[in-house]
Amino acid sequence: MTVVDSGLAHLSDGLFTTAIATYALAMASYTAEYAFGRRGRVAVTSAVEEPARVLVGASGPVADHDDGFGRPGGYMTPGGQKREPEPAGQRSSANRFGRFAVALTGLGALIHTASLAIRGIAVDRVPWGNMYEFSALVGLIAVLAFLGALARAPQIRYLGVFVMLPVILVMFLAGTVLYAKAEPLVPALQSYWLAIHVSAAASAEGILMTSAVITMLFLIRQRYDVQSKEPGRRIKFPVSLGARLPAPATLDKVAYRTVAFAFPIYTFGVIAGAIWAEAAWGRYWGWDPKETWAFIAWVVYAAYLHARATAGWKGRAAAWINLLGFGAMTFNFFVVNIVISGLHSYAGLN
Amino acid sequence: MRTALVLLFLLALAAVPGSLLPQRPLNPTKTDNYLATHGSWGRFLDHLGMFDVFGSAWFAAIYLLLFVSLVGCLVPRIRVHARAMMAKPLRAPKNLDRLPESGRFESGDSPSAYADAARGVLGRRWRVMRREEPGGVITLSAEKGYSRETGNLIFHIGLLTALILIAVGRLYSYQGSVIVQQGQGFCNTVTSYDSWRPGRLAAEGKIGPAPFCMDSLNRFSADYLDDGAPSKFAADITYSLGLDGAPRHHVLTVNHPLRLEGDRLYLIGHGFAPQITVHMPDGSVRRDQASFIPSDPTTLLSEGAFAEQSKPDANQDIGIEGFFAPTPRVTASGVITSAAPRVSDPVLGIFVYQGTVNPNGQPQSVYSLNKAKLHRIGTGNLAIGQTLRMANGVTVRFDGWVPWVSMQVSHDPTQGYLLIAAVAMVAGLIGSLGIRRRRLWLRLTPGAVLAEAPGPTAGAPPAGVIDFDSPTVVSVGGLARSDSGNFTTEFAALLERLRDAATVVEPGLLGAGAGKE
User: Fold this and answer.
1) What is the average pLDDT score of chain B?
2) pTM exceeding 0.80
3) Residue B433 to residue A57, Cβ atoms within 8 A
4) Paired strand residues for B410
5) Looking at residue A177, what DSSP letter applies?
């Protein structure tokens, strides 16, 4: 019989809280960078206005100005007016906040990883056996995905606030509502498929969460573009956020790429689940509520991939389908686990 | 694609009620309860097939339409793709500068020499076609990422195959489940199952290629943690293959079915079968044990019944309904319930009835009594060894208990092939979403001078004179035919490599029209 090491479990809980606090500081710092920096306001236009020669295309996402592309002086706005560069002091303080935020994010991710690893050691199993642990893992993967994206495209740093916000939300829910104390697994979960099926599902969900965030930014930016063309219109929050966001085409492409990356992982996760179900319940598919909603989310994301290649569905319509898919996945996680009873009742909330 | 999109939405939408309403194949009791409490609304939903969504005609209609649309889409695409695989890369457009990605540089090589160098840079992943244009101009058309569409087709063919295999599997599969008390066994025959769900074409009498018998459940053990959470279930069984097979020994656990030829034996659940001794009104003594069904899955508080028949029409049958609390606890209202699934000083709470247990001679549930012709003669809570005595001399003694397990036998001839189709789907998907489809063109113009502004004639040789000694102008244009990857950076890197392959032109010679040495 497995015994839980309560000292380690306690340590893991402490680290989890520390990770949330670190992320919160990082988010504050990202917000400061976003608020003080003038990025984006110009970046918006760069993808469209800049001649193709400059190697900042549609997908060097939010690239603008001084990130090594060596364009000195003012920048072109859509109207073609020159914009004066902002005072150097402001720019560098924004930059400092940004660097600090990334450092904090990295530190938070380390603490977060340690929290999960120590919990795994404390209970002597993979640390994703209930909703608390699963949410913690999804949050970690979203942060790692963002850090990975940052390594390849440092210009997106100022968007960190939009990634940290949902991560902190998910982790807060995990630490409060979904919290379950460290325990060994019930017999139904004692299978190596737990490591495969659940980690695939968590990875896909973490990445798809990032895609949903980017899609929301896309919709905001698009609405901003429409409203800013109406003379005399006061643009209210959250549409006003659009002023500093990358070009819609860029956001749309990044959202698509994240889904294109996560969809095969998600498909694999569902198939791994079916293989496990065959070993555990005697059938590979039985329309258990969890299976049904996994199917619904899969079909909706498949529809998104098709919509992006269908005339008349590109852009806004596809973006809404992406959000619908994320909605189905979130429903599958929260509502199906907690409210609807089925074979996947491992929430650990009773 | 639009049709597929609409059908995908319909499919997703149609699946929703299947998760929100109770489904008859999954949970008939819950469905009946829902129907009973929702009156005409429930009957209306039932009429629509809402309680068996995944077996309903309209759900089948949607996926059959999707299936047809998929075939209708795939056949022409396979043909187009086969042709594309054979086809040569397209001719270079007139003006490469107008492509989404473009660049130009000079090379000291002759067009033909640089064309060879560029081929080397592109390597084997690009399919390259060399063409000549008037005026000594050479164009290279290059294309790569053909397997993206191959992956796409593999995914969709895998999906089609999977759908067919699932349908065939449903026809030939069967599932049987049976409750086995410790010390008992069963054989793989239709009649020995408590519940039997065959596919339409599953063999009726003889099932499975090799009939087998689970001769005996020797011992079932359930381990629990201190807080009552289960940690291990194991069923020690003896089974034999065929009618005269030698008995074999096996320990069956959750997540690890016994895989026999064509059949799988699963440990699904477990419960308790209390044992009692009854002194009947006619003076005879009956010993009995009956499987009680857990009414609470976490504490395993279980309910069940005993029916002890005496001489017909003598009104001397004894019926007992009761509950079994493995770890009993008295609630505030004085009722006994169970605190944990582990057995520790269990209590059997019983209501004893006398009369006729089977008034209409029909088969009835073994877990409850038909009390139409029964009247209660006593009630009590018994610990092991205790006896309840009724006024008319009837006694009921709680002797002990044995565990029972519910076992399931599953048979599905297609699932191995289905796994192959699923692997093909994932592989196809990775190719279809990950491979980058790119087109690239190079136009190598001899004798043009770079200093000239790129105008409408850019890329074309200056009219009339061609100076073969001046550097070759290489203009490159690229087009991403899929959104995956970052083509801008890819193109920049490629342009860099193409530039590196060119012979450097001496700056002093630039624009002078002088030949290279």
Assistant:
1) 87
2) yes
3) no
4) B175, B264
5) T
